[in-house]
Amino acid sequence: MILLARIISMIASPLIITAPVSYALVFKTSNNAFYAIVWTAASLLFAATIGLFVLYGVKRGMFSDFDISIKEQRKPIFIFAAIVSILYFFIIFFLHGPKILMATLGALLLGVLIDSFVNRKIKASIHLAVYSAFAAVLGILYGGIFWFFVILIPLVAWSRIKLKRHSLTETIVGTILGLVIVIVLYYIVNYLIIIK
Description:
Largest sheet: none
Number of strands: 0
Strand content: under 5%
Distance between the termini: 46 Å
Shape: globular
Low-confidence stretches: none
Radius of gyration: 16 Å
Number of helices: 9
Oligomer: single chain
């Protein structure tokens, strides 16, 4: 069961799901596969920068592990992720890239800000926040069978609990955080017509 939990946790990792989320968002709003691939590659570079920072932090003893399991160690990753997100936002802006990615980065920054406050009380699962957001985005954008990813949220939560990375409460808080941010972003994008 531990091996299964590790596989599920790895597949649902924020670094891994960056590619399908970026592609789904850009393709849905541009209907251009090549454009979506180019911006997916750029998003992966952005995500890899954060991943390399975490790896560096683990090697230097700044973080206990790749999941940054100790909540007191999370402040540097929140700050770094915010800085990288802002830089990526400006790159997209100056290159006239997909507005949907700019909106997504805005949601990510909002998530980092909220999670930094929530983290003072509880170590909310970033894994679940990002995966839940991903699942909701796919369901909202593509509908139908893509809602299946939402059904998998409890499975991802189980994997995080089984690996002793989070408690049930921490996975629930992470899930709610991800879903609320996507719902807010969805209504902002639709009512302000940001992506058109």
